Amino acid sequence: MARITTVEDVTVIATESLSKRFPRVTALDRLSVDVGPGVTGLVGANGAGKSTLIKILLGLSPATEGRAEVLGLDVATKGAAIRERVGYMPEHDCLPPDVSATEFVVHMARMSGLPPAAARERTADTLRHVGLYEERYRPIGGYSTGMKQRVKLAQALVHDPQLVFLDEPTNGLDPVGRDEMLGLIRRIYTDFGISVLVTSHLLGELERTCDHVVVVDGGKLLRSSSTTDFTQTTTTLAIEVTDTDEHPDGTRAVRDALHARGVTVDAGSGLPGAGHVLLLTAQGEETYDLVRDTVADLGLGLVRMEQRRHQIAEVFTTDTNTGADTGTDTDEQRKEAVRHGG
Ligand SMILES: Nc1ncnc2c1ncn2[C@@H]1O[C@H](COP(=O)(O)OP(=O)(O)OP(=O)(O)O)[C@@H](O)[C@H]1O
Q1: Angle CA(157)–CA(161)–CA(163) in degrees, nearest 5?
Q2: 44 Cβ closer than 6 Å to some ligand 1 atom
Q3: Residue 54 alpha carbon, nearest atom of ligand 1
């Protein structure tokens, strides 16, 4: 089952000025992006166009204009060939309640063209990989959300695809379930060499799992970069200090002292956690030392100094001048992403 990826620079997904217009809304707006092998996160607030993009890439929904290729195959003419090579985990619950995970996944394997014995063998392997054991013989209707997500993941993997599209696989999971799912997703690539495109409205959870992150907003490309680049360009330190009799407004005292030492402190206005929290961009280890020394010199207590979790809101705040067309709906959804963020 293990597969070795020998060609590093292949383009797994390529879109060129891809648009999808519905009568009342433009779901994708001239999106041009290239995605290589590995685990890629597709991030955007609800309604940003993620599911629409996946359906076009699977050849299930025609684009209004532009073009796209998946594994070198044109989505407009080679949909069936793409679906043979690509696994798909849909966002919404789509599982029959009365059959067991084993029966369902064997059925999906047979639908993909595997002979009966191979379908059973691949099903057992795949269900073990996603962490379903004895439960796999019980009807799916009695499963928890986490178990159902695992069955959906298993059916996407059972025909040994080259690439999988996972639409919001952590939806509805508690923090432990979410971490387990993210670990499984990572291993799909590291253990089996299957590339992954995974969507989420939470940037924070994807940066731990993905090699590359693509951010969309209102159907437009906001940013596409490796996770490392992303982290480096958005490294924000959050600092909180105590007040003392000498410095009744400790926050202001630290801000002024840092300013005098040449460090510009971001007011953080509009971001969650602003107020008594100072936000500044860390330039490396020295910034941590400087903050610690500054707070100590003022005789204040350091309540916390931490690298802030990145949230979609920060990308939007940084990139509002990049030409992203932001409608009222998207603003609302962005706030929602912030509320659920990190
Ligand atoms: N079949 C459709 N007819 C009309 N509008 C649609 C259709 N499918 C999607 N849309 C609209 O297109 C926009 C993008 O939807 P899409 O489902 O792709 O977003 P998303 O980023 O996947 O968000 P979510 O995770 O909430 O589904 C939304 O405004 C949605 O209402």
Answers
A1: 100
A2: yes
A3: 18
List pLDDT tens digits, range 253-291: 999 999 999 887 875 533 444 457 888 888 878 888 999
The C-alpha atoms of residue 157 and residue 171 are separated, in whole angstroms, by 19
Domains and CATH numbers, the chain: 13-231 (3.40.50.300), 235-316 (3.30.70.100)
* Residue type (1 letter), 315: V
Helix axes 116-129, 175-192, angle to 10 degrees: 130
CA distance 160 to 46: 30
- ipTM value, please give it: 0.96
From the list 84, 88, 64, 90, the residue with the least C-alpha distance to 76 is 64
CA of 262 to the centre of ligand 1 (A): 46
Mutate which of 15, 19, 21, 22 to test ligand 1's pocket (most atoms within 8 Å of Cβ)?
22
51 CA distance to ligand 1 centroid (A)? 7
Instruction: Give every CB contact of residue 138 below 8 A, 6+ residues apart in sequence.
Output: 100, 101
**Placement of tokens 């840092």 in the chain:** 258
d(CA 286, CA 233): 17
Q: How far apart are alpha carbons 41 and 207 in whole angstroms?
A: 8
Q: Which atom of ligand 1 is nearest to the CA of 45?
A: 21
Q: Give pTM, 2 decimals.
A: 0.73
- pLDDT per residue over 160-204, tens digit each? 999 999 999 999 898 899 999 999 999 999 999 999 999 998 877
- The answer to whether 56 and 75 are in contact (CB under 8 A) is yes
Pocket-testing residue among 20, 51, 199, 203, ligand 1, by greatest number of atoms within 8 A of Cβ: 51
Residue matched to tokens 């959300």:
145
Q: Residue 321 carries which DSSP code?
A: T
